[in-house]
């Protein structure tokens, strides 16, 4: 959960850049992706061990969907173009929803 929480915090900073029509630092984007991937991998371990409830599976699916959106957003960064703000907002919303679903099961 810590990896996902730090990734979410970095995501808010990244979104703030884009919403102000500025490019985010590449290093922050990579850190955000690495922490998100770490969180997903830890969730996969929990799922494979059979320790995941139905809500955790739903949260994982939402986070996986958000990760796919993150790849799409990264493609804009690689092309040195700002992504559509609507995509950033949807990506963030799906990620936050997934995080909150998983967090609710942990607490």
Low-confidence stretches: none
Radius of gyration from the alpha-carbon trace, in angstroms: 14 Å
Helix-and-strand structural type: mainly alpha
Form type:
elongated
**Helix proportion of residues, in percent?**
over 70%
> Strand tally, please?
0
* Biggest sheet descriptor: none
Order of helices and strands: HHHH
Q: In what range is the share of β-strand residues?
A: under 5%
Total individual domains: 1
Spatial gap, N to C terminus: 11 Å
Transmembrane segments: 25-48, 55-74, 86-106
Protein name: Transmembrane protein
Organism: Stenotrophomonas daejeonensis
Keywords: Membrane, Transmembrane, Transmembrane helix
Provide a short characterization of the protein structure.
Keywords: Membrane, Transmembrane, Transmembrane helix. This protein is an all-alpha fold and 107 residues long. It has helices at 2-19, 26-48, 54-78, 85-106.
